[in-house]
Amino acid sequence: MSFPKHFLWGGASAANQYEGGYNEGGKGLACADLISGGSHTTSRKITAKIEEELLYPSHEATDFYHHYQEDIALFAEAGFKAFRMSINWTRIFPKGNDAEPNEEGLAFYDRVFDECRQYGIEPIVTIAHFDVPAYLSQEYNGWASREVIDFYARYAAVLFERYHEKVNYWITFNEINTATLSIGNFLSLGLQVGESEFINQPDNLQQRYQALHHQFVASAKVVAYGHEHYPDLKIGCMISYMPRYPYTSHPNDVLLAKQEENMHSKFCGDVQVTGKYPYYAKKYFADHGFAIEFAPEDQAILAKGTVDYYTFSYYLTLCVSADEKVTKNGHSMIGGSGVNNPYLEQTEWNAMIDPVGLRIALNDIYDRYQLPLMIVENGIGVSETVAEDGQIHDDYRIDYLEKHIAEMEKAIDDGVELIGYTIWSAVDIVSASTGEMKKRYGIIFVDKYDDGTGTLDRKKKDSFYWYQKVIERNGL
């Protein structure tokens, strides 16, 4: 048996994609609440205010706010040891910088954590999962302002004080490295981009990386604060990790793959684990004609606030070519150098399915940092319907998860310290990239559709029962 005795098997979610109740319980407006629905053929739209003719998926999502007891009971039935979730910043501080926290919001998460503990489920809590208060975006230009660092730090301090006896594992920012791509401008950084398409947002490279720097400083301040006041807490980072393969063995392809992987998959982890900027990032900034403005205390803050463990999402690998003659697939969220890998199958959303890539990622990350690792997102998005017999037969999901778990086991045999795995997702939720319900990831089906209709009834898929057995047997 390769999986550790106390391995944290479970499922994952995000408040802005799952929770709903966007204007209930004193919650304020978040940037996610201003992004309309879309599809893999039609981009989501960012609006300055809520427009009645548009559908905003985050407003109800799949309604964890009113179904949390039912859902957590289902997680327990599946045998979850852990549930990775996030807290809505605007449920605690409606504007983001309010004088006092919203007690009704704090009490809601008390109930959620108590429900998890009742079943012996360990909450793994992300403090900010693509979550910026709309007020901070509109009045401060989001993370472009250093003032937001202190607003976030106070928010995190309130969470630690309230929940430190109920939550042991914390994550400061979800997929913080999405800010290395223009897709992160509005949702993760809260930068003002005006009325625009979600995929094709106006971009200012200097501003974007400066805002990311402010998130680094905020994360480090929160980690240092947690270590000082609540030394038993474990506080980690979270990276969207996408290994890059060279399309050929040509040195230019190999070099490009390394450069892209450094800046888009390794850079943020390097800063949060080592407490300093890596050499290649400084070269990247210089090549692109800008420099990061450091406050006098920033370097000391980064060095002091390094994380305890490393978490990441893994969905796919990318293949890149430096040859101008090679046809690129032009994946708009990743960059223009990508090509289809001829050795891999793809999902209907053009994601390369690569279980072995997960073993490669685990070995690369552990070799680099020597910290405990946790995979907090891994899954496949598929359009699926209820069959004539009333069930959801998702053999494709079982096949996907089984092959990835097998590679996790091999990585553990390689010597990697892997402590947990939470599939994406526990329940069907709104897709962050496309705003669809059609793109389903869960092992629990939710009766909710792209037009906003549906009963919100829950139904266990075949993969639910399969995963239940995996957990029961600790991966055997």
TrEMBL record:
Alphabetical list of Pfam families matching this protein? Glyco_hydro_1
Q: Which domain of life is it from?
A: Bacteria
Show the InterPro entries listed in the entry.
GH, GH_1_N_CS, Glyco_hydro_1
The record's family statement is:
Belongs to the glycosyl hydrolase 1 family.
Q: What is this protein called?
A: 6-phospho-beta-glucosidase
Native species of this protein? Enterococcus innesii
